[in-house]
TrEMBL record:
<dbReference type="InterPro" id="IPR042100">
    <property type="entry name" value="Bug_dom1"/>
</dbReference>
<keyword id="KW-0732">Signal</keyword>
<feature type="signal peptide">
    <location>
        <begin position="1"/>
        <end position="25"/>
    </location>
</feature>
<comment type="similarity">
    <text>Belongs to the UPF0065 (bug) family.</text>
</comment>
<dbReference type="InterPro" id="IPR005064">
    <property type="entry name" value="BUG"/>
</dbReference>
<dbReference type="Pfam" id="PF03401">
    <property type="entry name" value="TctC"/>
</dbReference>
<protein>
    <submittedName>
        <fullName>Tripartite tricarboxylate transporter substrate binding protein BugD</fullName>
    </submittedName>
</protein>
Length: 328
């Protein structure tokens, strides 16, 4: 049967409207089933600790379970790429740290574009780093530590959670600041690195308070300083690096949340509202305070995260190029 040409525009418009309505309804009804939060690092690490506490807090306002899935490897790039390739329906989101901004300089070939393949949701927490060593390390304070490591730099090993990890970046800055290079031992995550530090198979490392606070309070490692501008409330006896003598030394590991690019704005809005509610949840705030993390509830929005990434990519790019560190 032929269709009169004069009815074609109306027919096409009707078809377009029919396609839009289901998508609109999906956005309005979001979420109707669990949301997966990808953590691009091994389970048990500092970002994983933040993610699992935040997932539970967000569940309360979303009305759906938020499932944390660990997709580790290649300094976080494998899990990050997984989110970039996921459907833009809001059911797969990414919780990543400062490595989101360092990867473009560290990796010559990234399987995603950090600037264009994601829709920012908001900043989450900022976590200070701690300088810790095996419990029998022969230095009682930071001054003694600095003297000892400079004198024995060819004999000492410094662990990290892999190229591009927060502990790796902190270590690079520390070595650059004191003018010394140590044998660096990369691991597949912070958990394995900490296990070897506890087992005295490596000498020291720089790691986030979310991973070290319990070990420090339990006396299982020696702690010398924190990398924040001010002392950490949960570790009040630890001086800042600046106080201890490394003037201006400050490293904070910010974390953010993203969805794949093209995620409808109503879904981004719901995820952002849930994120803010989660960050303000009393149980979450208490847990982060215990671990020394700073909750960034006022910056839990797309604009703040977008601004952070745009300023951090060139800053870290310059530092990494000067250090001459790259990953294939």
């Amino acid at each position: 049967m032929a269709i009169c040409s004069k009815f074609l525009p109306a027919a096409l418009a009707g078809a377009a409207m029919a396609a839009v309505l289901p998508a609109h309804a999906a956005s309005q009804n979001f979420p109707t089933h669990p949301v997966t939060m990808i953590v691009p690092f091994a389970a048990g690490g500092p970002t994983d600790v933040v993610a699992r506490s935040l997932a539970e807090a967000m569940r309360k306002s979303l009305g759906q379970t938020v499932v944390v899935e660990n997709v580790g490897g290649a300094g976080g790039t494998i899990g990050t790429a997984r989110v970039a390739r996921s459907p833009n329906d809001g059911y797969t989101i990414l919780l990543m740290h400062i490595g989101f901004s360092t990867a473009p300089a560290l990796y010559r070939k990234l399987p995603y574009n950090a600037s264009t393949d994601f829709a920012p949701i908001g900043l989450t927490v900022d976590v200070p780093m701690t300088l810790v060593a095996r419990d029998n390390f022969p230095a009682a304070n930071f001054s003694e530590f600095l003297t000892y490591v400079k004198a024995n730099k060819t004999k000492l090993s410094m662990a990290n959670a892999g190229i591009g990890s927060a502990s790796h970046l902190c270590g690079l800055i520390f070595m650059s600041t004191i003018g010394a290079e140590f044998q660096t031992i990369p691991y597949k995550g912070t958990g394995p690195a900490m296990n070897d530090l506890l087992g005295k198979q490596v000498d020291f490392m720089c790691d986030q308070t979310t991973n070290t606070t319990g070990q420090i309070k339990g006396g299982k490692v020696k702690a010398y300083a924190v990398t924040s501008k001010t002392r950490v409330a949960s570790l009040p006896d630890l001086p800042t690096m600046d106080e201890a003598g490394l003037k201006g030394f400050e490293v904070g590991i910010w974390h953010g949340m993203w969805a794949p690019k093209g995620t409808p704005q109503p879904i981004i809005d719901k995820l952002q509202a849930s994120l803010k509610d989660g960050l303000n949840d009393p149980a979450f705030k208490q847990r982060m305070a215990e671990l020394g993390a700073i909750v960034l509830a006022d910056e839990a929005n797309p604009a703040a995260l977008d601004k952070k990434v745009k300023s951090e990519i060139p800053r870290w790019g310059e530092l990494i190029r000067k250090a001459g560190v790259y990953a294939d």
